Amino acid sequence: MTDSELRQVLSDVRDGDIEAFAQIVQAFQRPIYQYCYHMLSSASEAEDCAQEVFLKLFRNLSRYDPGQPLQAWLYKIAYHQCVDNLRRRKLTRYLPFFYQRDTDNRHVERAIESAYFNEEVQKSMERLSVEERNLLILRCVEDKSYDEIALIMDKNTAALRKRYERTAVKFRQYYREAKGEASDDHEERGSGSEKAIPKGTAT
Predict the structure, then answer these.
(1) Domain containing residue 146
(2) Is 103 a domain residue?
(3) Do the beta carbons of residue 191 and residue 102 sit within 8 Å?
């Protein structure tokens, strides 16, 4: 759906054409579901969460600022919905990242396999805050730019870059500890280099 088509659909919905809202759901249902799944690691919970996201979008459409990308607003709603789910559940399982040691031991590899469960990854992700997990998922899994993430998380772009680098270092350290490996003194000092950014995600 192009931007102009989306604006027309939004206008139609606001004018009372409820059936037109189905076009918005169809356009964004898959990415929102995938995001919820990466946050919750549960297909059934992700389905329920995604449905709730679109319900909240419909109920609050009058509050939407047309000057902002609709997708960013949707991800923001999805993030808060996932946080609510996690708080209710009080037990988290995450499978958005798989760390694979390479020659320089500096990269967080992206590998999302719904049929694969890595205990070390789960333990490492659980030691991060929900906001840190959200940042890693948006950046590495959803492949969002820092500008897009800034809109979703209501954060400054430059601050997000620094937060991401620190979070990537923390994740690697936690993963090494979960694997029983020695800590990397260089990373513990926080080099802040681009090597901390997962392969294929830098912009």
Answers:
(1) 119-196
(2) no
(3) no
